[in-house]
Here is the input.
Amino acid sequence: MSPGKLVVAIDGPAASGKSTTARLAAEKLGYIHVDTGAMYRAVTLKVLRAGIPPDDRKAIGGLLRETHVALRREGGVTRVLLDGHDVTEEIRSREVTRSVSIVSRHRAVREAMVREQRRMGAEGGIVLEGRDIGTVVFPDADVKFFMIAGIESRARRRAQELRTKGAEPDLDGLMKEIRERDSLDSTRKESPLRKADDAIEIDTSDMTIEEQVRTVVDRVRRIAEGRA
Ligand code: CDP
Ligand code: CDP
Here is the structure.
């Protein structure tokens, strides 16, 4: 049985383990999982396909009016739909990764995504992960986590992921890209990446995925029981 119907927020920098932990914790809790980064990636893909420069605020604002991003659960996997078409694989491309932090700085982009995320979370029973869930999207979330990990661990994890896809990643290049994205995400004016004051910090550098999931699930269950 699902413990309560809480709203769980997980934020943190790139490759700290948010998506993996959120997905498995949501499965155990019987909750919905929302990867908000995937939504910003889908918008970025559309911007790139339209040939719009990622810093063109006006053109992106116009494009957003005819953009629909949705997440759909299919056979245990979450598919990302952009205007009804499946873009789950394309949004992970290097081009999208390089531009996503520029596109997601625009206020119009953030407002459109946050509106949709709040709609999805209105009933509770949900784990949302991203950069601004505990600070902006759901500042009153029932449980908040902030995941961090050393830059080397994070780059090694991304490298491992790319290797399973047949790529030969360059560790220094990956480290540089992650640092740049962290910096853009943390210093932007609109909804910067920041630990909420009441978030529980989890340093995953030396943790296993199982330990991360257990930390999240145990805490959510305890809070849900306390309220039952
Ligand atoms: O999985 P990875 O850490 O590579 O990134 P992601 O979670 O897919 O997020 C991609 C980018 O989207 C981030 O670097 C942020 O620029 C942006 N993002 C955001 O601005 N706000 C969120 N709530 C989630 C992601
Ligand atoms: O969502 P975020 O970018 O924070 O991280 P992710 O997409 O979950 O990527 C983390 C990667 O590190 C995945 O390939 C995980 O399998 C791996 N990993 C982890 O999350 N935690 C560990 N303790 C070890 C590896």
The chain has one domain: 7-227. Residues 7-227 form a domain with the Rossmann fold fold (CATH 3.40.50.300). Residues 12, 14-20, 157, 161, 204, 207-209, 212 surround cytidine-5'-diphosphate (ligand 2) (CB under 6 Å). The chain has nine helices and eight strands.
